[in-house]
Specification:
Helices cover about 10% and strands about 35% of the residues. It has 2 domains: about 90 residues, Alpha-Beta Plaits; about 45 residues, Aspartate carbamoyltransferase regulatory subunit, C-terminal domain (SH3 type barrels, Roll). It has about 140 residues and is mainly β. It contains 2 helices and 9 strands, in the order E-H-E-E-H-E-E-E-E-E-E. Bound molecules: zinc ion (ZN). Zinc ion (ZN) binds next to loops.
Length: about 140
């Protein structure tokens, strides 16, 4: 069994809902990096039954808002010198900038390169976000 502390320096994303691990792996384009990465799927978990885990042996900046959109149950562990240095709890982001596009085809953010779409959370059950420009509601789907 691979231990969390088997990496010296990097990031471990734990408690990922089964099936989301691969999505996150792909979304973060971890198949294209030149440092060690591990995707563990269907790992037995006391709390969740099964879970996915991603280990990244490098200090990269991860957009926690983005992770929160995909799966807000994730725990992000920052590892330094082989030890757990920081544990971050992920939440559904209240505000999102530029992570997805507005559903309104006439929205300025869909054809003006300089207008980055900004959204405010209106429902955490459906991941519904309201566009700051046109007020259209967009439900985020992976
Ligand atoms: Zn809009």
């Amino acid at each position: 069994m691979l231990e969390v502390t088997s990496i010296k320096k990097g990031i471990v994303m734990d408690h990922i809902t089964v099936g989301n691990g691969l999505k996150i792996f792909n979304e973060l384009m971890l198949d294209q990096v030149d440092y060690p990465v591990v995707l563990l799927m269907n790992v037995p978990s006391k709390a969740m039954g099964r879970k996915d885990i991603i280990k990244i042996e490098n200090n990269i900046d991860i957009d926690l808002n983005f992770l929160g959109l995909i799966d807000h149950n994730i725990t992000v562990n920052i590892i330094e010198e082989g030890k757990l240095a920081q544990k971050k709890k992920i939440e559904i982001p209240k505000k999102v900038t530029g992570l997805f596009s507005c559903h309104n085809p006439r929205c300025i953010t869909n054809f003006d390169d300089y207008a980055k779409p900004e959204f405010e959370l209106v429902s955490s059950d459906t991941l519904a976000y309201q566009c700051e420009y046109c007020e259209e509601i967009t439900e985020y789907k992976i």
